[in-house]
Structures are given as C-alpha cells and as structure tokens.
C-alpha cells in the first residue's frame, strides 16, 4: 500500500503546504499514519485534485465542508484519507496557534527539502513528557468541544492533563450544552472504544465534562441501593464496565474455553456508527441502570427497597440519550434492548426444575425475547452479576454463572442458526387444515408450535397438527 504521506509529498512538492496535527504527532510516536491533514497556502480543491491524481486509480475526491473549504481524498479501498484545508491566519505558526493542544499544533512542510518540524508551542516536548496542554487560554472558548477532546486524547495517548489546562477545561465545560449532539458523539465514541476507557471516563468526570455529555451517568452518584449491593449506582455501573472489559479480554475465564473464540468473534463484529458489538456492550454496561434514580422505591425509614421497572424505563431513557447524541436507530435499538433485558437471565434461575434443569421452553422464550442481542445481553448479565457483591453475593454469583455458561452456548448456537426450529407447517397450510382465517390466532398457534418443536415435544407434521388442534380446542374440564 502506498503511504498517504508519500503521496502528499509527491503531489504538493514545491507548494506552500504543510502536514499538520495528528499525522505529525503520530509519526513522532512511531505509529502508522493513515489519516493525514494538510493545510495549503492556496486553493485546497486544486491541492486535493493533485493528491488524487498522484495516488492513481481507485481514489475518490470530494468536498467535505463548503463552509471551511475542506476537501477529502480517500485512497484505494478506503485504506487511507487526506483532508486538505486552507491556511488560516496568514502563516503556518498563526494557523497552529488556533489549534487545541500543543501535541496537535505541530507541522512539517511537504515535499523534498521543505524544512524541519514547525513547533511554536512546544508540542514535541509535551509529547515526550506525555502532557496534554492547551495551546492558549482561549482554546476552549473558541470551541468548547475541545474540553471533551482533552479527555479523549489523554486516554488514547496516555497523556496527563496539565493543571492549568484542566482548570480551563472545567471553566468551559458548561458550554458543551450548546454543541451539536453529533459532534459530541463523534468524540465520545472514541472514548468508549479506547483501550483506556476507564481513564477517559474518570477524566471526563474530573473535568466536569461528564455532567454535560452524559448527565444521566453523573446522576447515578450517591444513589444508594439495597443490601444486595455493596456500592451506589454509579460505582456499581463502573464495576459492571470493569467486568465487561474483563469478559472481552478473556471470555473463556468466566464462560468456558469452548465459547471463548465465538464470543471474541461476535464482539469484534461491526455494529453501527463506527462501533463494534464490543463497544455496544461497553455502552450497555454504562447505561443499563440509568433509570434507577427515578425508579427508586424507598421504605418507611428512607431505605432503598429496589428499583421497580428500571429495565423498562431504562430502555426509554437510553433511547432518549442516544437520540440526543444523534446515534443511529440500529445503535439505539441495540443498547436499548441490552438495557430492557439485562435482568432476564436472572429471572431464568426461577424456571429451573427441582433437579436444576432449565426447561427447553423457558430457554426458547429467553432466546426469542432477547433476539437479536441474545448473546450480548447474556454477557451484560454476567458482568452485572459479577459486579454485585452485597448480601449472599458468593452464592448468587455461583448460581448465576452456572446458568450463564449453559445459556451463552445455547445463545451462540441460536444466533448461528443451528438450533432454530424450521416450521413443520406453513401458516397457510395450518389455516387450511384447521379451517381458520389468517390473523392473531393463527400467529399464536405458529408461535406455540415453534416453541414445542424447540422443546422436542413435536417432531413431524402430524404431531404439529395434533398439537395445533389441541391448542385450538383445549379439552374440557
């Protein structure tokens, strides 16, 4: 693959143009650079055309922002991209002075012999010292989204925030309330997907950013729970996230080596909005108890009795949060379903018979009710249970984990289509045989037959017909 920096150098050699920002920073860190920002003292459209021509066939070029005259060139197979913008302030140092952090305010001239690093704010020294420092006192006033970007860069690059920069960020964090949801979500997604997500969330809280990006999460602080919990709702939520992170790192440790590879493959699948199912699980861990403050039931002495319907109300709240952030319907539905069903595996414990066997019908209802998050929500339930260490915790965790190991295997097979019961009768056939019209009653009968077949109670067409007739006309008495 042709490196985008080489393409830019070849295309714009001799032009007044600079590679700026993250591409320079990442190159200094020794990282692969596939996303290059270029500023030109001239026409960005013409410069983008030159880059596209230099990179050959399979390259796309288009205007990214008319307001800021930004053009994007995407390499063959979307392997890399180059964004070209006009120089601001009349010179490269003036342009860099308008950026957010010193580590992002470095530039290199393009082409052969163009000169060395342009670093007017000490970005290289800060990068070596692993410090996130604002370029100027006006950095956050110019764009309050940068308060969230500080947390994002700090967790992605393992930077410590300079104390004065932290003070500036806290002062401007309330201005995030006027920033468009899609811009906030673009940064928040990077924190969610980061290896050091916990550090990013902690920094968001420290900088007062969390209260304006995810106020529903901040609202969990200090909400006490009943004796089956050892922590308030916020600390419990963060411990659920920790358990989810441990599951994604080593699913076999909790759920058995036989399922580990399949779980890893599932979590790596793309989900929506540039996130994977792993990231969806992280979001589910963070938001699954978000409705507990408004559903808290208290006793006569003010003690917490429980949080009735926090799963149902939580689904509505999660959808509202993700709608505010302009997330896709697919992501809203996925995380909403995780929230709605996160208690359901625990309910299955009550369906075991005297010998500890889970009836096939109960398992079928679990799988069909939670689909298409049947595996994901089982993982969330495990993380939730492992993070709940109050009264009788060891006993409850042991029982839950035995069931979870059984159910996760069933859920993986169900999702792969291995155990889905093929219908023994089509709807029109069943309606004709029974002499009934299409409608809700026919749908109920078909659902009952599917459940009975999954349970192994019917095996062929004749048994299905007999079962349907019995369901339609139950015996008297």
Automatic annotation (TrEMBL):
Record-annotated HD domain positions: 234-388
Residue ranges of coiled coil: none
GO biological process: tRNA processing
tRNA nucleotidyltransferase/poly(A) polymerase RNA and SrmB- binding domain location: 160-218
EC code: 2.7.7.-
Cofactor(s) needed: Mg(2+)
Keyword annotations of the record: Magnesium, Metal-binding, Nucleotide-binding, Nucleotidyltransferase, RNA-binding, Transferase, tRNA processing, tRNA-binding
The Poly A polymerase head domain, residue ranges: 17-131
InterPro entries in the record: HD/PDEase_dom, HD_domain, NT_sf, PolA_pol_head_dom, PolyA_RNA-bd, tRNA_CCA-adding_enzyme
GO MF annotation list: metal ion binding; nucleotide binding; nucleotidyltransferase activity; tRNA binding
Source domain of life: Bacteria
Catalytic class of the enzyme: transferase
Family: Belongs to the tRNA nucleotidyltransferase/poly(A) polymerase family.
Protein name in the entry: CC-adding tRNA nucleotidyltransferase
UniProt organism field: Capillimicrobium parvum
């Amino acid at each position: 693959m042709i490196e985008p920096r080489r393409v830019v150098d070849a295309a714009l050699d001799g032009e007044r143009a600079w590679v700026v920002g993250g591409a320079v920073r990442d190159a200094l860190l020794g990282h692969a650079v596939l996303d290059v920002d270029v500023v030109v003292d001239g026409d960005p459209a013409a410069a983008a055309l030159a880059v596209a021509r230099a990179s050959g066939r399979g390259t796309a070029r288009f205007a990214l922002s008319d307001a800021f005259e930004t053009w994007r060139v995407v390499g063959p197979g979307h392997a890399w991209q180059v964004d070209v913008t006009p120089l601001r302030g009349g010179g490269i140092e003036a342009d860099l002075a308008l950026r957010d952090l010193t580590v992002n305010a470095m530039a290199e001239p393009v082409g052969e012999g163009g000169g060395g690093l342009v670093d007017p704010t000490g970005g290289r020294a800060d990068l070596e010292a692993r410090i996130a420092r604002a370029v100027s006192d006006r950095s956050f006033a110019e764009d309050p989204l940068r308060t969230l970007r500080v947390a994002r860069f700090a967790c992605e690059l393992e930077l410590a925030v300079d104390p004065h920069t932290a003070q500036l960020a806290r002062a401007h964090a309330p201005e995030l309330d006027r920033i468009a949801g899609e811009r906030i979500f673009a940064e928040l997604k990077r924190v969610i997907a980061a290896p050091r997500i916990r550090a990013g969330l902690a920094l968001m809280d420290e900088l007062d950013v969390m209260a304006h990006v995810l106020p529903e999460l901040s609202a969990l602080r200090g909400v006490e729970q009943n004796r089956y919990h050892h922590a308030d709702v916020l600390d419990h939520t963060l411990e659920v996230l920790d358990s989810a992170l441990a599951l994604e790192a080593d699913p076999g440790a909790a759920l058995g080596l036989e399922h580990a590879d399949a779980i890893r493959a599932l979590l790596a699948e793309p989900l929506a909005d540039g996130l994977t199912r792993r990231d969806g699980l992280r979001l589910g861990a963070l938001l699954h108890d978000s409705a507990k403050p408004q559903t808290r039931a208290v006793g006569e002495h003010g003690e917490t009795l429980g949080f009735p319907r926090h799963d149902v109300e939580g689904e509505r709240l999660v959808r509202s949060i993700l709608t505010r952030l302009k997330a896709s319907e697919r992501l809203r539905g996925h995380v909403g379903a995780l929230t709605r069903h996160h208690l359901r595996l625990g309910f299955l414990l009550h369906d075991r018979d005297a010998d500890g066997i889970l009836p096939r019908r109960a398992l079928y209802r679990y799988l069909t009710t939670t689909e298409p998050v049947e595996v994901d929500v089982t993982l969330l339930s495990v993380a939730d249970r492992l993070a709940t260490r109050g009264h009788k915790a060891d006993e409850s965790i042991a029982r839950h984990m035995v069931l979870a190991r059984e159910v996760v295997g069933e859920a993986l097979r169900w999702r792969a289509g291995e155990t889905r019961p093929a219908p023994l009768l089509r709807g029109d056939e069943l309606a004709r045989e029974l002499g009934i019209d299409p409608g809700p009653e026919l749908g109920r009968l078909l659902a009952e037959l599917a459940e009975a077949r999954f349970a192994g109670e019917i095996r062929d067409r004749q048994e299905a017909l007999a079962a349907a007739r019995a369901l339609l006309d139950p015996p008297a008495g």
